[in-house]
């Protein structure tokens, strides 16, 4: 799965792909519009961050490439790639419990904090990716 050379794009199925962990210096794309929503991505080898309408959506440390990000009322799903293990923070509903699946393995239930942040770690290595699903309970 290649990095996103254009930093952010929509896929044929309507999902969103973004991020390039191979960059040595910070790069960003602002004012990327999808269905009336404005997205902003900042990415490089140390961090990848996505905002929607000025609000936090996704962050990884170190940087990652995210493919086919899809949000529904009940679930967030995407595939993530990076050079090394990453800590991922998602903005979800506050004080809500979620089931987290990494590569179809249930890693347990997690509850968001008062600001709606859910933090998870994923084991990555160069050339590999993991599928993440976060399901509202």
Share in β-strands: over 45%
Rg measurement, Å: 14 Å
Q: What is the CA-CA span between the terminal residues?
A: 30 Å
* Average of the residue pLDDT scores: 95
Helix count equals 0
Q: What is the N-to-C order of secondary-structure elements (H for helix, E for strand)? A: EEEEEEEEEEEEE
Strand order of the largest sheet: 1-2-7-8-13-10-11
Low-confidence segments, ≥5 residues, pLDDT <50?
Answer: none
Largest sheet: 7 strands, antiparallel
Number of strands: 13
Helix content: under 10%
Global geometry: globular
What class, by secondary structure content? mainly beta
Main traits of this protein?
single chain; 137 residues; mainly beta; 7-stranded antiparallel β-sheet; 6-stranded antiparallel β-sheet
In brief, what are we looking at here?
This protein has 137 residues and is mostly beta strands. Helices cover 0% and strands 60% of the residues.
Describe the structure.
The protein has 137 residues and is mostly beta strands. The chain contains no helices and 13 strands. The chain has strands at residues 8-10, 16-18, 27-34, 37-44, 47-52, 55-61, 65-71, 75-81, 86-91, 97-102, 105-111, 117-122, 129-136. It is globular. It starts with 7 loop residues before the first strand and ends with a strand.
Element layout with pairings:
Blueprint: E1 8-10, E2 16-18, E3 27-34, E4 37-44, E5 47-52, E6 55-61, E7 65-71, E8 75-81, E9 86-91, E10 97-102, E11 105-111, E12 117-122, E13 129-136
């Amino acid at each position: 799965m290649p990095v996103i050379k254009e930093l952010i794009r929509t896929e044929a199925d309507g999902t969103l792909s973004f991020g390039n962990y191979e960059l040595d210096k910070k790069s960003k794309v602002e004012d990327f519009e999808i269905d009336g929503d404005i997205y902003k991505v900042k990415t490089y080898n140390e961090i990848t961050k996505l905002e929607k309408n000025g609000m936090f959506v996704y962050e990884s440390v170190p940087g990652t490439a995210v493919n086919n990000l899809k949000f529904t009322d009940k679930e967030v799903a995407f595939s993530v790639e990076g050079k090394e293990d990453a800590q991922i923070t998602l903005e979800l509903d506050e004080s809500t419990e979620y089931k987290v699946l990494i590569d179809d393995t249930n890693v347990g239930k997690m509850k968001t904090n008062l600001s709606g942040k859910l933090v998870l770690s994923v084991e990555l290595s160069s050339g590999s990716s993991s599928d993440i699903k976060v399901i509202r309970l």
